[in-house]
């Protein structure tokens, strides 16, 4: 990178293209700069870091994770469209608006919850909310994600008093087999109000 700084200082733009590593199960699907191989050196020496994520066949989400020159731009959608110009088929890239942060956070919460329950017998609602707060996902998005996953029958739950206990259906054959005595008790009723 020091060798390239001579080019950079003379006004030449150097672009690196590379794949990022796959995220660990608890990192969610939104790209993070830590997912670059050798990320410390690369992020420290670059002016701008753009991360692209393919969402489906005709949509790419662009995330700017560093901008030393100005303010980081909000994540946005690039749509890939086919069109015909004269007799030739062409492709164009069209701005598709900002990535909806709330939907993104809720979808990230769903993935994290499934991965979390995959590695455990089950978790209480309070435990899940606490663990996802470390990933900057709020209680509201976590609650909505839990409700949607339960409605889609991707997760199951049982109640012990006011506390909900979530698990993957194939992980626990009978809800009665869960050892509730080992579960931490909720101290704040506000965490349980949105069950």
Describe the structure.
- By secondary structure, the protein is of the alpha+beta class.
- Helices cover 28% and strands 26% of the residues.
- It is built from 5 helices and 7 strands; from the N terminus they run ααββββαβααββ.
- It has a 4-stranded antiparallel sheet, with no helix packed on it.
- Helix 3 crosses helix 5.
- The longest helix has 18 residues.
- The protein is extended.
- The protein starts with a helix and ends in a 28-residue tail after the last strand.
- The C terminus is likely disordered.
Describe this structure in a few short sentences:
The protein has 195 residues and is α+β, with helices and mostly antiparallel strands. Helix content is 28%, strand content 26%.
**Percent of residues in β-strands:** 25-35%
Report the order of strands and helices.
HHEEEEHEHHEE
Shape: extended
What's the number of extended β-strand segments? 7
Nearest-integer average pLDDT = 80
Biggest sheet character: 4 strands, antiparallel
Low-confidence stretches: 171-195
Supply Rg: 22 Å
Counted by DSSP, the helix tally is 5
Spatial separation of the terminal alpha carbons: 52 Å
Residues in helix, %: 25-40%
Structural class: alpha+beta
Strand order of the largest sheet: 1-2-3-4
